[in-house]
Amino acid sequence: MLEGALLIAALTAGDATAGEAVYSRCLACHSLALNRTGPKHCGVFGRRAGTVPGYDYSPAMKRSKLVWDQNTLDRFLAAPLKRVPGTTMTYAGVADPKERADLIAYLRQQRC
C-alpha cells in the first residue's frame, strides 16, 4: 500500500526539467509570455480559466469557472475536449500521467 502511495506522490510532484521537454509540444500554439493561437501560460496557477487579457476565449472556457491548480490542470490536460466541451483547444491531451505531472511542475515554476 505504501508503495502505491509513494508512486502517486511522485507522479503528483512532477519533474519540472522533464516538463520543459513536454511543454515543447505546446509551443505550436502557446508561449509563456505572449498570447498566440492559445493564451499565454505564464502565471497560470491560481488564474481563473478564460481570463488572460487580450485573448479571445471560447464561450465554453469563459463559462467553465475553472481555477487552474494541480488538479484542474491535470484533468484538463488529460482530455481538454471532455473537460471543457466546446473549448477551441483541439489538442487531444497528454495521456501519460507522469508527463502531465512533469508539465504541471514546469508550468508551476513560470512566473514571468
Task: Provide a descriptive summary of the structure in words.
- It contains 6 helices and no strands.
- The protein is an all-alpha fold and 112 residues long.
- Helix 2 crosses helix 6 (97-109) and helix 4 packs across helix 6.
- The model is unreliable at 1-7 (pLDDT under 50).
Mean pLDDT: 91
Distance between the termini: 40 Å
Structural category is mainly alpha
Oligomer: single chain
Main sheet summary: none
Given the C-alpha coordinates, what overall shape results?
A: globular
The parts where pLDDT drops under 50 for at least 5 residues are 1-7
Q: How much helical structure, as a percent, in the residues?
A: 40-55%
How many beta strands in the DSSP annotation? 0
Tally of DSSP helical segments: 6
Task: Describe the SSE topology.
Blueprint: H1 2-13, H2 16-23, H3 59-63, H4 70-78, H5 80-83, H6 97-109
Short description:
The chain is mainly α and 112 residues long.
What keywords describe this structure?
single chain; 112 residues; mainly alpha; 6 helices; 0% strand; globular
